[in-house]
Write a structure and sequence with these properties.
4 helices; single chain; binds fe (ii) ion; 151 residues; mainly alpha
């Protein structure tokens, strides 16, 4: 058990609300997405957000989670190219990409304020997964002609 400072608690409450938002978004967007592959991607990323929420709640309860036992990212496989890129699906992707980018940056800021090394590690693990979520969405968009990467 660890005793959290007020500042640590405040930062964790903030992350908790971010994770709740992410769980909600991925769940809603997996229903809205037209491409079945994108539905599946959002569903699996949403499951990881649920795990993040559980971890943040554990830390808020004074438990230090074991980072090593957490699951591996399942969704970084390359997707197949489809000719029909759907604007509505692209909008969902762009919105989640912006969300991931923002949430990842808040973890980066929060990490610097924690006394406990293992809590830092747990938060770092979550932040790494947020970056991987961004990568998975980025890859999906690129493979489906939704993302302009200019040389
Ligand atoms: Fe998350
Ligand atoms: Fe995420």
């Amino acid at each position: 058990m660890v005793n959290l400072t007020q500042k640590e608690r405040y930062l964790l409450e903030d992350e908790k609300s971010h994770e709740e938002l992410c769980v909600k978004k991925y769940s809603n967007y997996s229903q809205q997405a037209k491409d079945p592959q994108l539905k599946q991607l959002f569903k699996s990323l949403g499951q990881q957000e649920q795990q993040h929420l559980t971890t943040v709640n554990q830390i808020l309860n004074g438990q230090v989670p074991n980072t090593n036992s957490q699951q591996q990212n399942p969704q970084n496989q390359n997707t197949t190219k489809s000719n029909m890129s759907n604007q509505a699906d692209a909008d969902l992707c762009n919105d989640l990409l912006a969300t991931e980018k923002y949430v990842s940056s808040t973890y980066n800021t929060a990490i610097f304020e924690f006394k406990d090394t293992n809590i830092r590690k747990a938060l770092n693990h979550i932040q790494k997964e947020e970056q991987e979520h961004g990568e998975a969405i980025f890859n999906y968009m690129q493979n489906n002609g939704m993302y302009n990467t200019q040389q």
